[in-house]
Amino acid sequence: MNYGTEPLPGLPKAVTIWEVGPRDGLQNESALVPVSVKVEFVERLADAGHTVVETTSMVRPEWVPQLADAEQVLCRLDRRPGVRYPVLVPNERGLRRALDLGVTDIAVFASVTESFAKANLNRTVAESLEMFAPVIASAREADLGVRGYLSMCWGDPWEGAVPAERVVEVATRLMSLGCTELSLGDTIGVATPGRVVALLRALTAAGVPIEAVAVHFHDTYGQGLANTLAALQHGVTTVDTSAGGLGGCPFAGSATGNLATEDLLWHLEGLGIHTGVNLTKLVETSTWLATHLGRESPSSVVRALQNS
Ligand code: MG
Prior knowledge:
- The protein is an alpha/beta fold and 308 residues long.
- It has helices spanning 21-27, 35-47, 70-76, 92-100, 114-121, 125-141, 164-177, 193-205, 224-233, 261-270, 279-293, 300-305, and strands at residues 16-19, 52-53, 56-57, 87-88, 105-111, 145-151, 155-156, 160-161, 181-185, 213-216, 238-241.
């Protein structure tokens, strides 16, 4: 059923969806998924029309057992021309593993707050950026795309509201180290549209090109789409989402973490914004994956469409 399309002024004609389900989503699910299911998941996402599917992470298996099979997934995956399969890389060793497997795009995961840098990386923010510097430099020498994730951009469970200046500091540093793109993460889902716009303005004022900025919203407090719309109105054209809303929120005891790709797609299709991703195929994929996870998708759109 088609319920109609009506554009709004000031929005982009097309949006790139950076699908994070296989990496950020599965990493934060308690169920361990077999390699064959992961490979099929990534291939189905590409089938559905995704052009960027963040596939896995080269972190040490004992840190993230959910993604301990990164090599096997990448070896078995049928990588298609025109689709990018970025991989999260924590250090130089991870980068070498990624390069050996023919990866063309990597991401590094930085925190803008000291509390989360300590909790997640066991380093200060400055130490973590020092650790990433040679990784980013080597990756750029090898002509890879390098995305810098910034987590806790609007709020942090230990520190509360995060000032935009903190984010600008880390963002400009990551750009000067050679990142080709930044992803602003609302890791605990507490941002609201005015604060989203304030941060985007602060970043552009500091010389960060808006074309290099992606947004990564979590729907923990139900703000994901409102925040996305605000970001699109301010020139952002890349949005991170997770198929079926995979990946809960480890800091809120909530089933809802990553904004669901289906929820974003419904929103963008209603606004007449092109993504190239087929909503029906995606809902089928998320419904299929849910049977392997043993939990229903938290996405409103998946729930509305899966039995229709
Ligand atoms: Mg996320």
